[in-house]
Structure formats: C-alpha cells, structure tokens
Design goal:
heterodimer, A: 644 residues, alpha+beta, Acid-sensing ion channels like fold, seven-stranded mixed sheet, five-stranded antiparallel sheet, 18 strands, elongated, B: 655 residues, 4 domains, eight-stranded mixed sheet, six-stranded mixed sheet, 20 helices, 23 strands, 39% helix
C-alpha cells in the first residue's frame, strides 16, 4: 500500500503538466504551441474557430502527405550527374597491340599439317564436282581420324522434311555427293549448301546409336562453315601445346615492334609487356602500369602521343584461321585485361592509322544508388582473370562465368579463356564430346542470362572514344628507304624483308579535350531531406522539430492523465466513496482558457509566481485565491499533492 | 416546429455562427492587434520596441526580410522549370538494332540501259566535245556524227555553259555559240570562284518555262561536279517515270548482295533481311527490321556475337556517271526509325573487313514546358510522309516535299509521295527543275519555315559506332576464300565466274559491350520541393507560414476593407442623419449617437467586469440573502485585444 502510494505520488510528480483533464491539456497546448494553426482555433470567434480548426487539420494532413512524398523521394536514392569536359594531364591509356593472326604459320605448320591437307582435300571435293580432277594429283593418305571426330557434310535441304546429308569424305558416297551438288545447282532453290556437323558423345557412340547424339550446325555459306570447322579443329590441336611453346610460336616483340616513340622519348619493344592472348597469340601492352608507374601525357596532339611502327608479316599467316589481316589494337585502363574481341579495333597494313583519344569516364555511386561494384569482390563469380593481376571488369566476369559453367558441364576448359585450377583445356582426344557440349552451352540462352544476372558492371566505367583516320603509308616516294632502314634495323641485313602488306604505322594521342567525366552525386542527402521536411512543416504550419517535441509532450501528458484517471477510477470503484467536494458544474473551456492566461489560477503549491514577471505591469490588487476557483484534480490525488 | 428544416438549419447557423465584422474599430488598432498577435516575427518587434530609432530599425529589418522573401520566392518560381540530367548505366541483354545495307550504286547498269542509254550517250558526247575525253576513237567519230544530226533534247532543256572572265557572256558548250546571261547567278562552290581561275567555271542554266527571261544560273568550279549534277537532274527525271516494280527488278536482289550471313554464332540468310526500296540507293536490305514482330537481341558482346556479312559489290555493273565511289553504305538504326541512308550512312570499303563496334545510348528529354521537343510528333502541323516514327529529319523532308507539291505541282523524287501527288518529270511539269532549285534555295536559307515548325524528338536512341578496317581477305587466305565464296555464289545464282576481291566487302557489326547508357532529364523541382523551399525561405526570414499568409490576407484585405467600408458607411449615415435633423431642426439625441452605425442597440459595458461576469456566472437573481459584492478587480477584466470594442463584435452573452 505504501509502495503504491509512493508510486502514485511519483506519477503525479512527473505529471506536472498544464492540466488535469484532457480538455485543459488541449486548450493549454493550443494556446502555447509554436505551430501557427492551433493558436487561432482558440483565439477567434466560433465561426473562425471552425474555419481555423479545419484549416489546421488540412494543413497538418498536407504536411504529412508531403512528408511522405519527400521521404519516398529520399529512399529512392536518386542521383544527379555533373559533366566536366576539358584537358588535363592524364595517364596515357595502356595500348595493347596484337597481330590478327595468333601464330606464325612457319612455326605451327608441323602441328596443323594433317588438318591443312584434310581441308585442302575437302575444299577440292566441294569445289570440283567432277571426280576426275581430284584424283589427278596423287597425295599422301589423309589423316581421317581428325575428320571423323567432326566431319564436314553437305546438307541438301531441297526436300525440307528429308534433308540429305552427305559426308564429303565418305569414299563410297562420293558419287552420290556429286549428284546432290549437281542437284542443288539445277534446282537453285533455297537450300543450305554447306554444313558442319558436330557430334555429341564419342564418335563411335554417335555412329552406333544413330543420329540422336548428333547435331548439325547449319551454315548458309561454305566459307563460313570451313572457317568455323577449322577453328574448332585447330583449337583442339593447339590446346595440347604447352604455354611456353605457344608463346614461342607466336610473334616476338622484336620482330613485330619495329619503332616506338612516346612524345619525344624513344622507346622500344622492351617497354612492352608481353601477354598471351588466346585469340591473338602474343600481345604486347605499352604502359600497362604493372611494374612501373603509368606514363602521363600533359599535351594534346600527335607530337606528344605514342607512335609505333609494326610489322604483321602477312605472308606468315595461317591461311584458314584468320581471313582478315592487320594489327589488332585496343586502348584500355592500366592494370586491366584487354578484351580485344570486344573493344579492339583493326589497323590495316600499308596505312598510317591516327587515333585521337577522348577519355570518357563515368563515375558512379555504389550501393544503394546504383547496383555496381567497385572491385568485383561482391560478385558471386570467381574471376579467372585475376591470375593476370588485372582488375575486375564485366567482360572478365562474363568470361569467367562462362568458363566456370563449361568446366562444370563439359569437365574441361575452353581454350579461349583462362583455366581454373586443376582443369585442362578441352581437346578431341580427352574430351571427345566437348565441341557439342561447348556449342550447346554457347547457344543456351539460360546460361547467358545467369551470367548476365550474376555479373555487375563496375562503378567507374572508362571508355576511350577514338577518332580514327587513315592514310596510305609509306608513300610511294619514301617507300624504298623506309623499308630499307627498318629491315636493316631488324635483321642487320641489307635485304629488304618488309613490304607494304605487313607494315603499319600507328599514332595514338590525346585530343584537344581529353576527358569527359560524368560523375554522380546523390540528389537527395539527409541534409536535403531535413531541410525539405522543415520547409514543408514551416510552410504550412510554421512548425519545427520543437513543435513535434511539444506534441510528443502533450501525448505523454495525456497518457499520464489516462493513467491517473484509471488509477483513481479503480480506487473509486474499490472504495465507493468518490464524491465531488465541489458540486458546481465543471468549468467551461473558455473559462479554462482564461484560467490559464491568468496566472492566479495556477495550480502551484508554493503559491503564485512573482507577479511582476508573469503579468504585464498593471497595478492592481492581487487576485483572490479562492478555493472555488482552484482547478482541482480529483480529490484523491489532490490530497496526495496537498500532503507535500 | 412550423419552420422548414432548411430554414431551421440556416437559422441555427446564424445563431451559432453570427456574421460579425472585425473586432478592431480602426485601421490603426487592427494593425496594432495584428502586429502583437501575428505569428511572424518582425511585426511584433515593431510594436513592442521603444524608441523611434529602434522601431525604425525594426521596420527596416522587417521590410527587408519581406523583400528578401519575395525576391527569393520569385527566383524559386522562375527556376521551377529546370531539369537535371541523370546518367544510368545498365548492363543487360540489349536489342540488336536494325542494320540497313545498300549498294552505293542503286541499279544494275546493265538492266537500266534501256532507260539511260540516251542520256549516257549524250553525256559521253558532251565529255568528248568539252574535254576531249573518249573511251575509244572509232566510237566517238560515229557519235559525233549522230550528235550533229539528231541534236540533243537534254542539252536543249538544260544547256551546259562555260563562262569567261566573269563577264555576262558564256559559251554554250553544245552549240559553241556565245550567249548573254540573264537572271541571277548561283554559285555552287562560291569559295573557289573567288580564287579567280575563271577558265574552269562551268555551269548550267535553268529557266522558268513560262517566263524565259527569268533564269537561274548554277556554276561549278569543276566540270566533275557540273556533269554529275547535270546528270543527276536528268536521271531523276527519267527515274520518276519508271514504275516501282521495274525499278525493284532492276536493282540488286538479296541473293545478289549478300554472300554469307552470320549472327550471334548462327547462320542467317536472306529471310532475315527485309527489302526496302530507297529512291536514290535502290534496293536496300534491313537486317532485324522487326517486321515479323520479333527483334533479335544480343546477350554477349564482342565481334563473334554480332552480325557478320560478306557483301557482293558488282563493281563492273556500276553506273559511271551517277556514282563515282565503290562499296556499300550501311546505317544502324532503331526498328522504328526510317534509315536516312543518303544523309547519315557509313560507307564500307571493298576488299576489306570493316569492323563496327557499337555502344548504345538512349536519351530522353523532358517535353514542354521544360524544353521544346515533341513526344510523338502529333503536335507538329506537318504530315509524316514516312510510315515510321517521328524524327526531325522526317519532319524536314516531309515539310519540303509538301512545299514542293504546293508550289511546283509535283513531288521530288528522293522523298516519298504525298497522297494524290506524283513525281516530277519534264513531260508533265516542264518547269519543275527551276522550281525545285528555287525552292531548295529557300529551304536552305530557312525561308520556308520548315526549320521553325519542326521540333526534335524527345527521346532517341543512338548507337555510337567505332569503325576500323582490316585487309580482307589476307594474302594467304585470298585464294581459298575467293574460291569458296565463288562456289557459294554459284550455288544460289547459276553463274560460274570467279569472284574478285574488289567485288567483296566484309562487314562486322557488334556490340562492344552490353552497357546501355540512359541519359534522362528529370525535373529538378517538384511541387513538393518548391513548397518546402518556399517554407524554408519564409521560415528563415520571418518564421512565417501559410497561416501567416492567410492572416495577412484576412487582416490586410478582408478586415481592413470592412473597417474602411464601415467607416464610410458610418460617415454616410451620419451625414444622412445630420441632414435629416437639419431639415427637421431637432438637435441630436444621445440615444441616436449611441446607435450610430450599429444594427442592434447595445449597452457598452463601461464598468470593469466583476468576478461574476468574468466567470460568466449568472448573478443570483432576487436572492434575499445579502451577499458580499463581488470584487471589482481590473485583473479580472476579460482579456480583450482592444480597449475600445464595437458592440457588434462582442459575444452575445456579454451584454
């Protein structure tokens, strides 16, 4: 009982609020709050009261509505972009140069000997329908094991439902094949003249089980079919060769890079970093920034850029592997892997190619503003290109993703991509079904989509916008001495070993404006949110955070009142002796207003406040301290407080 | 109970919410009351401050705060329609654009021979006589004879002239006669004219057929340009008369143009291409035109996954006068866009592999009122003659064509036909060339108003192309490549000749990466932000809000006005009463004075309120018991803002 009393008293002490009833409390709040509307409600006449009441309600709801919009806007994490264009000293891009042809034919000839003879014979058969011509030249027996793994066939789709498939090398069917070819020529409809067959499973399994495990890749053109077939076969053969040998078979830096000049400073092939690229063999990267500091360029114009003279020795190309001749080059960021198939450009032999560079940067904010990654650590794909010590890029991610799928499904890695640990490259002997597996994986939209979904783009996207122009080089007048000097420098011989078909001049330089940077900044910060919230609240109601605190205080007060009321009600119920000591009617609202503006009505045990401070300096008698005027809490509590 | 419910309600409203004027009796009082009770900060200081200087300073400060608020808010309003740009990059599967490929030469020269032989013969003769150029001696002799015998329609219509020393005379190159030049002179390349080498100036004259004195003269510094332009005029004239089917027949078929096709690692053929006839480029073929409703997409970047085609460019069958370059033209565009291949095509070299890397950018502008662009083109008063979605180019071309039909009576050959019109030719419109040149002149000088009417489209897609060229086929692969390609070609077309590498062009179009850049404009300001900025300004300078604004409206407009009106009404009434009294001769009575300006009589409560009145407790009526009179304290006075209060503003219970 004692504890309860103490508790109640503590409650009461806490509730030194402005009133002891809800009405009182509300009126007090309206009168004293700093928000603009409520004051008017109680100050004006009844009609205005009503108007002001609705206005205040309206404004309050407007404020809340607008706040909702603002908070929503904030949570959508919008960004604004700012663009800057100009020239500044920048890191010169890393320049990768490769030959379009991966290996010197003279070096790989012994590996591809069988394959080349095979394809020559196949072409012979395709192109010369009359068998007499082909038998004229006696040739050594062909290695048909290669052929039977993936044979080239002719598909006659003249009869749509029953396409006739003819293996070019099946000796007993040669006549038939000729007939079909002839048939194609006479009919002249829309058939598929050349086709490439890829077998699934083992070669023997395919022939035994019928065509269930076989798929035919159709090509509308024989040229296309032959190229694809050759790439497949050579990939399989070359994948068995060790990396050192492959590097040896490719183009060496000293043979390829004949002259180099960066700005006014001479450079040579030693300034290039060698990297083995599966598509293009040996590639050489200038200014990769791996071991040494990246070079800066602080002047625009061709005089301050990189000038290169390359020799691609077109005579030594592998005839069936790459039909386009030229150098492949690419500009990229330091420490990134060059994906030449995607971003690379060609430079034609016998020309001078000038490339003006504009660095187009996009700097983005990371999560939650946009879904990008800074270093790829949060991407669920193992980056296989990290073995080159290169930074993350979306191309690296996609290729790694593909290779990981390939290893998972086909149990071997594709030759074009880096290997995960403990896995070998696919070849026809160890993995006879790899080509089938590869093609089904490559054309699978599902797998592509998985990779697209799991890879994220980098937050800082840098592109090198190139303005490419070309001119013939060397000119006819200067040709002789240029070839002479370059040949001499390379081979120390007076014989001219270079010609128009192999030589390429490159100029790479910054344009007058060398950067265009689009950088993002948050459109809505927390400061923005707060000032907008404040602005809205201020605009409609003249309120501030303090007003919110006031409101919270009132709610707490009303809670106390509720608690007190409930307690007293319980008590009353228990004791059955709740009587009003003052039988007069309860005071009206307006009375109470006056009561509170007049401090004489203050319920303070310690008596009234010093008059002079609280009231305007109006001389007068102090107000009577009538008991009847006392705004009284319910008697039970009143007694408690009085007891103090 | 007898009252109607409506009346009852109005009566009730009148009772509970009586209409009363402002409480302040005078404007000064009202202002004072306003300043003391307003929610804004400055005003109160003005009233409360003591001393003139201080009050003056406060007035100044308040006024400048008001000024600042107005200035800043005006600034906010003026900048309301501004847009900010955001760039988003999305890595995703991208739709492959439509790729339109044309041979630079529109029609096979061999199949157009019937129509053009006459013109070509004349051109050759002209070349021979003017420049001494001949392909074979014997031929020329014969043709010169023919020339003299038949005479030339083409030269009669548009004579080629050679000018001497900028004088007003010229030599007709056909007849050799000197003639006087009339009319205005248009220089096609005027910068070269100024170099002073007058020997080389050559041109032709276009005369108004109805009024032969009105001629326009077009000069060129080089015979190459003059002959080509002259040939083109006649060529278009001839072409306009040939039906479309014949022209399509005479142009290249898909089998002619496309040797191999490869897309995304799979073989494709002519079924993936849509034919489209371009007036100047003949048959063009659009890959992935989306015509059958499906648009191909790319999910891997890189050259292997794009479109690879080998084109057959039959150089031997080129028109020698119409086109002077060899190769193909391609354009990368959206499926909805019309390919303006003559304007923005990229040229493809033969005997080379052209690799075109694409980078996709989508842009979106805000339309009115942010910028003057159009979403669909529906609000542009120019009929779209192309059945493709709106673009600025389409609008300009359509506008010109419309003007052409209106003023020349026939349509220009290079653009589509408006309904009901037909292409210009000599026979029907002998005057069209003159008319066309005049109109084109006006169009270029922006006198036709097309540039003003046409707006740019609000959203557009752009494929930025990086083009590079490699030699193709390489020396070592040339032999087998050409043999196999000849075999391919021989299959589809029963022709058995070995192809030459200068007849072939290899083209690769691919996405460099699948990053789509989306540049969009967003409104910088929304209404919410504008209002909160207003609120910030109002709050910063004066702690004001909409409530203050309403207060101001209430006090300064409604209340002040009603006070002024009331004063005037009182004055008028007083004046009226005075007049009445003067007429009747009665002195004014106190009761009258009291009632002045009031609708209902009241007694002003001059006494200080008692405790009872303050609490509005009813006085015990007729109580027999003597009671202490309630104290008459001044502090008990009801707090009223005004010392003097008009009776009609008082609460009804108070009197």
């Amino acid at each position: 009982m004692n504890l309860k009393k103490y508790f109640v008293r503590a409650l009461h002490r806490l509730q030194k609020g402005p009133g002891y009833t809800y009405k009182e409390l509300l009126v007090w709040y309206c009168d004293n709050t700093n928000t603009h509307g409520p004051k008017r409600i109680i100050k004006e006449g009844p009609k205005k009261k009503l108007i002001w009441f609705f206005l205040t309600l309206l404004f309050a709801s407007l404020v809340f509505w607008q706040w909702g919009i603002l908070i929503n806007t904030y949570l959508s994490y919008n960004v604004t972009s700012s663009l800057s264009i100009g020239f500044k000293t920048m890191k010169f891009p890393a320049v990768t140069v490769c030959n379009a042809n991966p290996f010197k034919y003279s070096e790989v000839k012994y590996l591809l000997k069988d394959l080349d003879r095979l394809i020559e014979a196949a072409l012979e058969r395709i192109l010369q329908p009359t068998p007499g011509n082909s038998t004229e030249s006696p040739s050594p027996p062909l290695n048909l094991t290669l052929w039977y793994q993936i044979p080239l066939v002719l598909i006659d789709e003249h009869d749509k439902d029953n396409p006739i498939i003819l293996d070019i090398f099946e000796s007993d069917q040669t006549d038939k094949g000729n007939e079909t070819t002839a048939g194609n020529e006479t009919s002249g409809g829309n058939q598929t003249p050349g086709a490439n067959q890829t077998s699934g499973g083992e070669q023997t399994a395919c022939s035994h089980q019928g065509s269930d495990n076989c798929t035919y890749r159709n090509f509308s053109s024989a040229a296309q079919a032959v190229t694809e077939w050759y790439i497949l076969q050579s990939t399989s053969i070359l994948s068995k060769v060790s990396l050192q040998d492959r590097i040896r078979m490719g183009y060496q830096a000293e043979d390829m890079i004949l002259a180099c000049l960066y700005g006014a400073e001479p450079c040579n092939y030693k300034n290039f970093t060698q990297i083995y690229h599966p598509d293009h063999g040996n590639c050489y990267i200038f200014n990769w920034g791996m071991d040494e500091e990246a070079l800066n360029s602080s002047n625009p114009g061709a005089e301050f850029g990189l000038k290169l003279i390359l020799d691609i020795s077109q005579q030594d190309y592998i005839p069936y592997l790459s039909s386009a001749a030229g150098a492949r080059l690419m500009l990229h960021q330091q420490k990134s892997f060059p994906f030449l198939k995607d971003q690379g450009i060609y430079a034609m032999a016998g020309t001078e190619t000038s490339i003006g560079v504009l660095v187009d940067e996009l700097e983005r904010m990371g999560y939650p503003y946009s879904d990008c990654t800074n270093n790829g650590s949060d991407v669920p794909v193992k980056n296989l290109y990290s073995q080159y010590n290169t930074s993350y890029s979306i191309q690296a991610c996609l290729r790694s993703c593909f290779q990981n799928h390939m290893v998972e499904i086909c149990a071997c890695g594709h030759y074009m991509f880096p290997l995960p640990e403990g896995v070998n490259y696919c070849n026809n002997e160890d993995n006879p079904g790899w080509a089938y597996c590869y093609f089904s994986l490559r054309s699978s939209i599902k797998h592509r989509q998985i990779c697209i979904d799991s890879c994220k783009e980098t937050c800082n996207d840098t592109q090198y916008k190139m303005t490419i122009s070309m001119a013939d080089w060397p000119s006819e007048a200067s040709e002789d001495w240029i070839f002479h000097i370059l040949s001499y420098e390379r081979d120390m011989s007076t014989n001219v070993t270079l010609d128009r078909n192999g030589i390429i001049k490159l100029n790479i330089y910054f344009q007058e404006y060398n950067y265009r940077t689009i950088s993002e900044s948050a459109a809505t910060t927390i400061v923005w949110l707060l000032s907008s919230l404040g602005g809205q609240f201020g605009f409609w109601m003249g309120g501030s955070v303090l007003c919110l605190i006031e409101f919270g205080e009132i709610i707490i007060d009303s809670l106390w009142i509720t608690v007190i009321n409930v307690i007293s009600w319980c008590k009353g119920l228990k004791q059955k002796r709740a009587q009003a000591r003052y039988p007069d009617a309860p005071p009206t609202v307006s009375e109470l207003v006056e009561a509170h503006t007049n401090l004489g009505f203050q319920h303070e045990d310690g008596g009234a406040l010093p008059r002079g401070e609280a009231l305007p300096p109006e001389p007068g008698t102090p107000p009577p301290n009538y008991d009847s005027l006392r705004v009284r809490p319910l008697d039970a509590l009143g007694r408690d407080s009085d007891a103090e | 109970g007898a009252m109607a419910p409506g009346k009852k309600i109005t009566a009730r409203i009148k009772r509970t919410l009586p209409v009363r004027g402002p409480q302040a009796p005078t404007l000064g009082e009202l202002m004072r009351w306003y300043c003391l009770n307003t929610n804004t900060h400055g005003c109160r200081r003005i009233v409360v401050s003591r001393g003139r200087l201080r009050r003056f300073i406060w007035i100044l400060l308040t006024l400048s705060a008001v000024g600042l608020i107005i200035w800043q808010c005006a600034e906010l309003l003026l900048n309301y329609y501004s847009a900010s740009v955001s760039v988003t990059v999305q890595f995703q599967k991208l739709p492959f654009p439509a790729v339109t490929i044309c041979n630079i030469n529109p029609y096979k020269y061999s199949s157009m021979k019937d129509y053009l032989s006459e013109l070509d013969k004349e051109t050759k003769k002209a070349l021979e006589t003017f420049y001494g150029f001949s392909e074979g001696k014997s031929k020329v002799r014969r043709s010169v004879d023919e020339w003299n015998s038949t005479g030339s329609d083409f030269f009669k219509q548009i004579p080629l002239l050679k000018f001497e020393d900028f004088s007003k005379t010229a030599t007709d190159l056909h007849s050799g006669q000197k003639r006087k030049i009339e009319g205005s002179v248009f220089h096609k390349d005027s910068s070269i004219v100024n170099s002073g080498d007058s020997n080389d100036i050559i041109g032709f004259q276009l005369c108004d057929a109805n009024n032969s004195s009105d001629c326009a003269l077009y000069t060129f510094s080089s015979g190459v340009n003059a002959i080509q332009e002259w040939y083109k005029l006649h060529y278009m004239n001839i072409m306009a008369q040939i039906p479309l089917e014949t022209k399509e027949q005479a142009s290249y078929s898909a089998d002619d143009l496309l040797l191999t096709c490869f897309f995304d690692g799979l073989s494709c053929d002519k079924r993936h291409f849509t034919r489209f006839h371009h007036p100047l480029h003949g048959n063009c073929y659009t890959f992935n035109s989306g015509e059958n409703g499906t648009v191909l997409s790319t999910s891997t970047g890189g050259s292997e996954y794009g479109l690879q085609v080998v084109l057959y460019i039959d150089e031997a069958d080129y028109n020698p006068f119409l086109v002077t370059s060899t190769g193909a033209k391609i354009i990368v565009h959206d499926q909805d866009e019309y390919p303006f291949i003559e304007d923005i095509g990229t040229e493809i070299e033969t005997a080379a592999a052209t690799s075109i890397g694409m980078h996709f950018t989508r842009s979106r502008k805000l339309s009115k009122p942010y910028s003057d662009c159009t979403e669909t083109g529906a609000d542009i008063p120019v009929e779209n003659l192309y059945n493709k979605s709106y673009s600025l180019q389409i609008c300009l071309h359509s506008c010109f064509q419309k003007a052409m039909v209106n003023s020349c009576g026939c349509a220009q050959y290079a653009q589509p036909l408006p309904p009901g019109a037909e292409y210009c030719n000599y026979k029907k419109n002998p005057n069209w060339m003159y008319c066309y040149y005049r109109l084109h002149e006006k169009f270029v000088k922006e006198q036709l108003g097309c540039q003003q009417i046409c707006k740019d489209a609000c959203s557009f897609k752009e494929w930025a192309l990086t083009t590079s060229i490699a030699q193709w086929p390489s020396i070592v692969s040339e032999d087998w490549m050409l043999r196999v390609l000849s075999w391919d070609k021989g299959h589809s077309k029963k022709l058995n000749k070995k192809l030459n590498k200068t007849d072939l062009a290899n083209l690769m179009v691919f996405y460099k990466d699948l990053n789509e850049r989306f540049i969009s404009e967003n409104p910088t300001n929304t209404l919410v932000i504008l209002l909160s900025n207003f609120g910030g300004q109002l709050g910063l300078w004066m702690s004001c809000s909409v409530v203050c604004v309403i207060e101001i409206v209430e006090v300064f407009f409604i209340d002040s006005l009603s006070i002024v009106l009331r004063r005037q009404w009182q004055k008028a009434k007083k004046w009226w009463n005075d007049r009445k009294r003067q007429r009747s001769g009665k002195p004014p009575q106190a009761a009258d004075l009291e009632r002045q300006g009031h609708d209902n009589p009241v007694c002003l409560d001059e006494d200080l309120p008692t405790f009872n009145t303050a609490l509005r407790l009813p006085l015990p009526q007729g109580s027999p018991l003597p009671r202490t009179p309630p104290p008459n304290y001044s502090t008990l006075r009801l707090e009223s803002a005004f010392s003097e209060q008009l009776p009609d503003t008082l609460e009804p219970g108070q009197h």
